[in-house]
Amino acid sequence: MIVVVTSWRGIGATTTALVVATTVAAMEPAWLIEADPAGGVLTGRMDFAPDERAGLERVAFPSDRCTPWELFAAVAHEIGSLRVVTAPADPFRAHACHSPRVPWAPALRDLDGVIVIDIGRLRAGSPAQPLLALADVIVLVSSPEVSSAVASAEWVHARGRISSLDPELSDATIRLVVVDAPSGAAFPRSALQVDLGEQFGGWLPWEPTTVDLLHREVAAADRRLRRSPLLAAAREMLRQFDLEPEVVR
After folding, report:
1. Three-state DSSP string of the chain
2. Phi/psi class of residue 59: alpha, beta or left (left: φ > 0; alpha: ψ in -120 to 50)?
3. Separation of alpha carbons 5 and 120, rounded Å
């Protein structure tokens, strides 16, 4: 299964992708592929060895003759059952990964376990747009702030079409997930649930302590995270995404 995490006018796509991937990895192998064409941030937030940084660039522009699957495995940073592949921090290099010498997107289906892809904030003409077509589930992240939530909800209702030229994302399950970050005028949870109906994916609490632990590579099974409201909300969110029963229990 491929889960693409993005935002339209929201916040926290990368953090949400990390939370989702960590939660899945507590049950079965998972991958987190950072593919934000604006540049990756995980290398700066986490402790990666030099040969594990900007791994997506080495998959896109390999120096050896290997299959993309072998390249993903070679560059991944392992945190328990979670494998993380990061994008270059430089936006020009990160953008170039979406025009690769060796196409890597088709190989995502060959990876084992659940694949979580962070494509950052959607922009007009984003080279990461084709990854949406690969997704089984699209998680659109928003804050509860009124303008962000309204714009994001419209994107969900339109199934990704912002102009007549855009293809409709007809096959993917699309859900709006709200990160309850501090903001100005904000919708209450109940209002968004009513408006979105089954397209409401969940409400993740703002919990900096848990995020800090995840950036320090603490696995979901660690006792410090067992009572985390953020991970509990992520587990509840995953139950709505038609994952196999053995993945989320």
Report:
1. CEEEEEECCCCCHHHHHHHHHHHHHCCCCEEEEECCCCCCCHHHHCCCCHHHCCHHHHHHCCCCCCCHHHHHHHHCEEECCEEEECCCCCHHHHHHCCCCCCCCHHHHHHCCCEEEEEEEECCCCCCCHHHHHHCCEEEEEECCEHHHHHHHHHHHHCCCCCCCCCCCCCCCEEEEEEEECCCCCECCHHHHHHHHHHHEEEEEECCHHHHHHHHCCCCCCCHHHCCCHHHHHHHHHHHHHCCCCCCCC
2. alpha
3. 7
Pairing of the two strands 77-79 and 82-85: antiparallel
**Diameter of the chain by CA atoms?**
53
Dist. CA 199–CA 193, nearest whole Å: 8
- pTM of the model as a whole: 0.91
| Torsion on CA atoms 112, 116, 118, 122, rounded to nearest 10 | 120
Per-residue pLDDT of 139-165, as tens digits, reads: 999 999 988 888 888 888 888 877 766
Q: What is the pLDDT of residues 168-190, one digit of tens each?
A: 787 788 999 999 987 778 888 88
Rounded Cα gap, residues 119 and 8, in angstroms: 11
**Spatial separation of the C-alpha atoms in residues 86 and 106, rounded to whole Å:** 18
The residues near 123 (Cβ < 8 Å, ≥ 6 apart) are: 38
Residues of the chain with pLDDT below 70 are 10, 164-165, 242-249
Burial (CB < 10 A; 0-12, 13-18, 19+), residue 182, is: exposed
